[in-house]
Amino acid sequence: MHNKESFIELGARQRAKAILDSGSFREILGPFDGVESPWLEPQGIVPQSDDGMVIAKGTIQGKDAVVVAIEGSFQGGSMGEVSGAKMATAIDLAAEDCLAGKPTIVVLCLETGGVRLQEANLGLASIADIHAAIVRAREVTPVIGVIAGTVGCFGGMSIAAALCSYLVVTKEARLGLNGPQVIEQEAGIREYNSKDKPFIWQMTGGEVRSRCGFVDKLVKDDVPEIKKAVEECAEKGVPEHFRTGCIDYFLETLSSYDTAEQAQPGTAEKLYEGGFKHD
């Protein structure tokens, strides 16, 4: 029996340390390297010296690993040119190590609203690079996504989450292509009330995403539990099938839903009941 230690309350750097074996954490391009976005200060935004992206090398159960952790408290975890390049390059280098005979597990702590609007096209390009890097890496090593809270994972980075070999979430997590405020802005409050928190979590929360088969492990907000879930996913190795390879199933299921009908909590769960399973 241990005292519960919240993973959600940790910053990105502490999350990376918590996932890696004790004492193995080594940061690459950290705050003292001063690699920050050149685009924020001209817009009156104070940049962060690591651009809100932590890259750490270490081990998981003695095996080489890289953990990429997004700092959700900086610009909502949004992705810009520098942060995106750090993430994509780290994933690519891990894949190169694997191909060179040095297996390296990849873990992505995804706490992000998607593209950084202040960097627009540069951010979008970097997210595309991240997607391509994940697709390459997952063929040779497990790419494990972790969504804990409180920011959630939205926008183009929700696609990155879907591309992962395995996805670990807490019930406090949220996962969706569009965030609640974006949906409300575009479709109106009658379609989606961004202030209705219970409704939001019933639509995009970790529990419902788990029941729909969109994630692989639903765990409590507890450091040892999340660490154990990551280790179990790593032990499974490269899966035989990926969710993104089951596009026919998802399209057929989605097309069976009458979009003229207002979606309600439970709609997605009913639609995708008994959905994707790796085995």
TrEMBL record:
N-terminal signal peptide: none
Keywords tagged on the record: Transferase
UniProt superkingdom: Bacteria
Biological process annotations from GO: carbohydrate metabolic process; fatty acid biosynthetic process; malonyl-CoA biosynthetic process
CoA carboxyltransferase N-terminal domain span: 1-188
InterPro entries linked to this entry: AcCoA_carboxyl_beta, ClpP/crotonase-like_dom_sf, COA_CT_N, Malonate_beta
GO molecular function, one term: transferase activity
Transmembrane keyword on record: no
Pfam families from the UniProt entry: Carboxyl_trans
Name of the protein in question: Biotin-independent malonate decarboxylase subunit beta
Organism of this sequence: Turicimonas muris
